[in-house]
Amino acid sequence: MDHAQSPVRLAVIVGSTREHRRGRAIADWFVGEASDRPDVDLSEIDLADLDLPVRFTFDSNPALDDLRARLDAADGFVVVTPEYNHSFPAPLKHAIDFAKAEWRRKAVGCVSYGGVSGGLRAVEHLRHVFAELHAHTIRDSVSFHRPWNGFDDDGAPSDPGGAHLAAQVLLEELVWWSRALRAARLATSA
What we know:
Distance between the termini: 15 Å
Structural class: alpha/beta
Number of strands: 6
CATH architecture: 3-Layer(aba) Sandwich
Number of helices: 6
Radius of gyration: 16 Å
CATH topology: Rossmann fold
Strand content: 15-25%
CATH class: Alpha Beta
Number of domains: 1
Helix content: 40-55%
């Protein structure tokens, strides 16, 4: 198989587990934006659907094994995160910490939401965490300011043109970096 041009496998991670969260609608919107692209193969990881252990462990259990396998299968990631108290949610950090090698030398893009900052402070904190895991975060991101007002009843953003453009810029960079890093991983593992 020609890995250079084959679609990149992107895992879209919904980082909030709160009730009445906006993250699920935003992740669905992003998946819709990316689904028409022939250069991506999408999967979703919704942390609210996982039964991760409360205590940190590297031991094997079905939920952790499934999470690690899904992360390992991905060439890159899109993290959909809210901003809570100027950072990202604890369940997201917990899920990130359960894996290590599965993140290494892969690209990470962010779609954020929150108050006046649109979640950008959460993204800046995530950049430090992913740098420690040897993952490459994409500079471009998508952010939604005050998303509780910024989406209609069907889950579409109130500024669809701007949101669409931001998503396409993020996807272009994410696909490029995911392919480049995949090729480098394959070359060094041979």
